[in-house]
Write a structure and sequence with these properties.
With 362 residues, this protein is of the alpha/beta class. The chain has 2 domains: 238 residues, 3-Layer(aba) Sandwich (Rossmann fold), CATH 3.40.50; 94 residues, Rna Polymerase Sigma Factor, Chain: A. An 8-stranded mixed beta sheet has the order 1-2-4-3-5-6-7-8, sandwiched between helices. The longest helix is centred in the middle third of the chain and has 15 residues. It is globular, with a radius of gyration of 20 Å.
Length: 362
């Protein structure tokens, strides 16, 4: 296959060094839409050691732009003596189907020998969790102590509790919701439009071009990043200052450009669209009689954490989960100046919530 530059996609490709990734095939994946993705491969990483009776496993659902290398995207939580204590637990994290860091996704080779590109089907959160269920069967883990994750990962953890509650003893959902409402859908949808409006998007079939929809994904990431942080932080950190390089560019714009450039090095525009659209589709109550009926089915302990300054998934959405889930503990609130991204920054508080969840089942 043609070697692709970062100006086309930041995806991990089959020609790249796998690093610590492992791979397992889970067979065909039937989606809610009725479409079947054939011969799906899941990339994953593990940390710690599985004990003899296979009872010490923890399942991590990564955030939207995360991947299987948990310490790389969720720093300070994995290792000896940390919340995900590798001296005690066996931590498993797969790259989500539709992702771009080793699992079958738009940048992968399809059965016809070409990259999926724009032909890759749209996914739902349930599709992702169904793939994760098949993945866990494939690696031979029958039950986890906990399924946990932030944002997109929190959506999937909640779906695990409803769909496969016998396979997890508890869940911890951080900065997430039971359903995507208008504000989340609106914020996400304009990001998708920014990518699709890029002349190099080519209906998702840009892998043969010299340049992919880099500008469109940069704008999408900048919109997203503002929703991930807080007005207070942007005001205190940047004010109305400009760069001292004579460009006249505002400092905050320079910062947002930097965030966009970082993402381009490790992400793919088609994956951005597929995962964002999946978050828009999130509704645990779909075809289950509504979210109250769906959450009432949960039988395992549920710990929900909110970030007090989160403007993308405000605390009322986590409180809604708690109010409607009979097995939920009182809402945990993480105090942060950094909004939604508090789950990445407030390591001590996040660690305390994770430990509290594990104490319920060990």
């Amino acid at each position: 296959m043609q070697m692709l530059s970062k100006s086309v996609t930041g995806a991990w490709l089959e020609t790249h060094d796998p690093g610590e990734r492992k791979f397992v095939r889970i067979g065909d994946l039937a989606l809610e839409s009725g479409v079947v993705i054939p011969d799906v491969s899941i990339a994953y990483q593990t940390f710690g050691k599985l004990n003899s009776d296979r009872s010490n496993a923890i399942f991590i659902n990564h955030a939207m732009t995360g991947w299987s290398d948990v310490p790389a995207w969720w720093p300070g939580l994995v290792g000896p003596g940390k919340a995900f204590d590798t001296d005690r637990y066996f931590i498993v994290c797969p790259n989500v189907v539709g992702g771009c860091q080793g699992s079958t996704g738009p940048a992968s080779i399809s059965p016809d020998g070409k990259r999926w590109g724009g032909r890759f089907p749209f996914l739902t959160i349930r599709d992702m969790v169904n793939a994760e269920f098949k993945f866990n069967d494939a690696i031979g883990i029958d039950q986890y102590l906990m399924a946990t994750g932030p944002s997109l990962g929190g959506m999937r953890a909640l779906e695990w509790a409803i769909s496969f509650g016998d396979r997890v003893k508890s869940i911890c959902s951080i900065g997430s919701s039971a359903i995507a409402y208008g504000d989340q859908i609106g914020t996400h949808s304009i990001q998708i439009r920014a990518i699709e409006a890029d002349p190099n998007f080519n209906s998702g079939d840009y892998y043969e071009l010299e340049t992919g929809p880099v500008a469109g994904m940069a704008i999408a990431r900048q919109i997203a990043h503002l929703s991930y942080r807080t007005e207070f932080e942007m005001a205190e950190r940047f004010g109305a200052s400009k760069q001292d390089d004579g460009s006249g560019r505002y400092s905050v714009v320079s910062y947002l450009d930097h965030q966009a450039n970082k993402l381009q090095q490790r992400f793919d525009a088609n994956t951005y669209i597929r995962l964002t659209a999946a978050m828009n589709s999130h509704d645990v109550g779909r075809d289950r009689g509504g979210i109250a009926a769906a959450l009432s089915q949960i039988k395992i302990p549920v710990v929900v954490a909110a970030i007090d300054t989160d403007r993308l998934f405000p605390p009322r959405l986590q409180q809604e989960i708690v109010d409607l889930t009979p097995t939920a503990l009182p809402l945990e609130t993480i105090n942060s100046l950094y909004g939604h991204d508090g789950f990445l920054i407030e390591t001590d508080s996040v660690s305390a919530v994770i430990r509290k969840t594990l104490e319920l089942v060990i």
